[in-house]
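check these C-alpha cells.
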Amino acid sequence: MNEEIKKLKEALAVSPDNQYLWQLMVDAMVGERLWDELLSICLDRIARSPDDLCAKLGLAQSYFGKENFGTAAIVLEELLESDPENTIALLLSCKVHIEENNLSEAVETYRKIKELDADFKDENIEGRLTIRSEPEPDSAEGISFSDEVEGRILGKKDKVSFKDVGGMSNEKEQISLKIIHPLQHADLYRSYGKKIGGGILFYGPPGCGKTFLAKATAGEIDAEFIAVGIDDILDMYIGQSEKKLNLIFERARAMAPCVLFFDEIDALGANRNDLRTSAGRNLINQFLAELDGIKSDNDGILVVGATNAPWHLDAAFRRPGRFDRILFVAPPSEEARVEIFKLALEGKPIEEIDYDKLAKASEGFSGADIHASIDVAIELKLQEAIKKGKPSPLTDKNLVKAIKSTKPSTKEWFQTAKNYAVYANEAGIYDEILAYLNIKK
C-alpha cells in the first residue's frame, strides 16, 4: 500500500470526520488509480453520511476511472444539484460527456467552468473539443477552422460511385428518383417550379454504409462533397457555433451542385425539448434556418444527414422542405453480402471462394461486420504464416470460422428501433423497420 495512503487511513481512524484528511485520501487514491478501493470507501462513507459531497465526488471519480461513465454521470448530476459551482465536478462531468460523445453538453459544461474561472484551461479537453483560446470577432468573416477541418470542408469531387457500393439496390433506386434525376434534368424540373436539391435523411443500424452511400451519391452526380462532423461546428463561445454552421452552408452554396453531409446529425439536431441549454436550442434554430434558405438560395444544394437514432432528431427537421425524404438503410441482404464479400476480398490472396456460403453464414451482418470478420480471418492467417514460415491463401473454412466468431452489431440497434417502430410510429416514419422485421401494423 502507498505509504501516504496508509498514514492517511491511520489519521482518519483517529479523526473520521476530518474533511481535509478525507479529501487528501480521495486525491491520493485517484492519483494511484485505486478505483475499486476508492469506490468501496466512498460508498461506505455515503451510507453513513448521505450528504457528503466529497465522498460523492470520489464516487464519481471511481466510476469514471472504471469507465462506468453512465453511473458517473448520474452521481455528478446529483452532486451538481447541491453544489452547481463545483469546478472539479464540472470538469469531470465535461470529461464524461466527451467519453459518451455528448459534445454539445461537453462544450456547455466547459463554458460554465470558464465563466466561474476565466483563467482555467485544460489543453487536452480543448484539443478534443477543437476549442480556441480566444473568442472570434463578432462576424462571420472572423470564423476560422483548424487545418484538418478546413481540408474537409473545402469540398471535393469524390471518385466513389454506386458501382462501388455493394448491394443496396432499393436505396440506390430511391436516391436516383429523389436526388439524381432532378439534378441531371435540372432545367426540366425548374420549368415546373421545382427546386433542385433539398434534404434527405439516411437512418439505420451503424456500419451499414450510410456515409459511404452519401459519398457515392455525390460521385454519381459529379458534385462537390463536404462532410461535416459535430466537432467541426461546436464552439465554447456563445454564437460562434451558429456562425460556423452558416459559413459551411455558404461554402456549399458557392460550390453548387454540392452534397453537404452531416454525420450523426442527431447530435446537432437533438430534440429541443431534451436540451437543457439555450445555446443548444439556438444552434438547432440556426440549422433549421439554413435548411430553409431564408437568407440564401439553397438551389443545387443537397443536404444529407445520417443517424443511427432518428427518434432523437427534432421533429421540425422532418418538415417538408427540410429532411422530408427519409431513407432506411437496412443491413445488406444476402445478395448484397455476396457483393460486399467480393469487393472486400478483391486483391487479397484467396482460394476459390463460395461467396453464397459466406453470405448465408453472415446473416444479420452489417457491411462493417463483414469487413471485421475478414480482418479476423486475415489475422489468423498471418499467425499461421508466421508459424509455418510461408503464407497461404484465405479459404472458405478460414472465413466461415471468422464469421462465427464475429457477433452482428445490428441486433442491439433493432431491439431499440423495434420499440419506436411499434409504439411511437403514428406518422409511419418507421414502417420500413416493421417491414424488415416482418411485423404487421
In short: DSSP finds 21 helices and six strands in the chain.
